[in-house]
Design brief:
The protein is mainly alpha-helical. Helix content is about 70%, strand content about 5%. Helix 4 runs antiparallel to helix 11, helix 6 runs parallel beside helix 12 and helix 9 packs antiparallel against helix 10. It is found in: Cell membrane.
């Protein structure tokens, strides 16, 4: 298509021809569908087989009595009734899990934020501090439990050797003390993890926001709480989720110390003891696992609701 202007012929693109040449939706070949089926199907099958399959099986087995060998017998709500009214280890385990969550969420996580802020300000030997504080994160909680035994053992522990008391304190054997000692060890590891997450978040904060707040006369404290901390909301969400997960799945450190007994009972330990222990009460252990699942879902649903409300407000 062309037009004439001042005696010259000017070409004008044909819009209809361009639209006609525009490619339509891509047609997938048989090979493409096969690749998509493999890439999507295998993860879905593994997810169903390893996560959702055992989850629904546990829910079903929680209403039965089964020792893993004999016949499965329907028990109705008897397992849950015994769990809430006739199982003395249950409520202490619930309290310990909640205490674990409170300790990591209210003490360890804020302390990790404080360390991140101090290191981000460029104190001397910040690289050394950062590496030293992060070192426990590369250790599993079981190894942290063994380290706690070396330090807190009654007869051969380093702490009692330093104190030099004639009557050494049984830090890990006393039910009134051992939960706090184990929480300190777990918090030691959790603090380094939180510190690294907040350090990454602080590096991404726009320096211009801090400069604008300083020009407006805001103090360093006001700048942090009113400017910096709100921009760290995604990191706060990640830290909150990790803290809940660490609190509910805590198992290996208490099992390494005393197999989760004598004041260190946790829901995860009770599930393990009943399902694969000598009792082999798979139905009752499944009921404990369902309770732990419901507690986890409570936090997850609350988090999702808050996130959806935040998205709508934004």
């Amino acid at each position: 298509m062309a037009t004439v202007k001042d005696g010259e012929r000017i070409a004008v693109p044909n819009l209809r021809a361009r639209r006609a040449r525009r490619p339509g939706p891509r047609r997938y070949t048989r090979r493409d569908r096969l690749v998509l089926g493999v890439l999507l199907g295998l993860p879905i099958l593994l997810d169903l087989a390893l996560i959702w399959g055992p989850t629904f099986a546990s829910v079903g087995l929680s209403f039965t009595t089964w020792d893993g060998i004999g016949d499965i017998r329907w028990a109705g709500l008897n397992n849950y009734d015994h769990l809430f009214t006739g199982y003395p280890q249950f409520w202490p385990a619930v309290r310990h899990n909640l205490l674990w969550l409170a300790f990591l969420g209210l003490l360890a996580a804020p302390f990790g934020l404080l360390l991140a802020v101090l290191i981000d300000r460029g104190v001397r030997f910040s690289r050394f501090y950062q590496s030293t504080l992060y070192m426990p994160v590369v250790l599993s909680l079981a190894v942290v439990g063994f380290i706690a035994q070396l330090i807190l053992s009654r007869d051969q522990g380093a702490l009692n050797a330093v104190l030099g008391s004639k009557n050494p304190t049984d830090w890990l054997g006393n039910p009134g003390l051992n939960i706090w000692m184990v929480l300190l060890a777990a918090g030691w590891r959790h603090t380094g993890y939180v510190m690294i997450l907040y350090l990454a978040g602080l590096k991404s904060v726009d320096p211009g926001l801090k400069e604008a707040a300083a020009l407006d006369g805001a103090s360093a404290r006001q700048t942090f709480f009113r400017v910096v901390l709100p921009t760290l909301r995604p990191v706060n969400v990640i830290v909150g989720v990790i803290t809940v997960i660490e609190s509910l799945r805590a198992f290996d450190i208490v099992y390494a110390v005393n197999k989760g007994r004598n004041g260190l009972e946790l829901l995860s330990v009770l599930v393990t003891d009943n399902i694969i222990g000598e009792a082999s009460r798979i139905g009752f252990g499944s009921a404990l696992a369902v309770v732990l699942l419901l507690v986890s879902l409570g936090f997850i649903v609350t988090y999702l609701v808050q996130e959806l409300r935040g998205e709508r407000r934004r």
